[in-house]
What we know:
Shape: globular
Structural class: alpha/beta
Amino acid sequence: MIRVLLVxxxxxxxxxLRAILSRADDLEVVGEAYDGAEAVEAIVRLSPxxxxxxxxxxxxxxxxxxxxxxxxxxxxxxxMLTTFDLDEYAVRAMRAGAFGFLLxxxxxxxxxxxxxxxxxxxxxxxxAMARRLFSAFAPGEPARRAARALVxxxxxxxTEVLTCLAEGLSNAGIGARLFLSExxxxxxxxxxxxxxxxxxxxxxxxxAYDAGLVSRE
Length: 217
C-alpha cells in the first residue's frame, strides 16, 4: 500500500482528494493536515510515502513545510498542489526537495497514477512544463556559479546521465540513449544524487538547468 497524507487549508479539497484516492486498492489516505505546521507533525507521526501539499496556506505555508519535511530523516515524496502552472512557489518548493507539482484541476482519473509515479521516485512534472517554469524563474548568478562548480566535478559519463535526467528521460530511456543497462543507470543516478547533494531527481534536474547543461528555451 502507498500511504498518502493530504495537506490543504480547505477541508473540502482534502475530502475531495480522499474520495478520489480511496477508490484505488493500492492507495491509503492515512491522514489530513490543514496547515504547514500540522503537516510536518503528521509526517513525523504517520510516516506517509507521498504527501500532497498545498502551497498557499495561512500560518506555515506549503513551501516552509516542505523545507522542514525534506530536512527530516527519510522524508516522504512531496507533491505540491497549486492553482497556477507557472508558480514561483512551486519552483522554490522543488528546489527545497519536492518531487514536482500538481494542478488542482488535474483530471481525477489521473490522480492515482500521479501518486504511484511519485511513490516510485519519479518527478511529477513534464519536461515541457519544466522548461517553462525554469525559464520563467531562472536563478541568480551566484546559484549558476555554484551549480557549474558542482557539475565540473562530474565525470563525462556522469554529466551525460545528468543531462538526460534533466531532459526528463526515465532510467530505461537514459540507458537506451547511452547504451547502458537500466541497472547501470540506476547506479549512476544514485551516485549523482550523492555527489551533487540532491535529495531526488527533480533537484538534480534543476541543478542541471542552473549549470546550463540543458537549455531553458
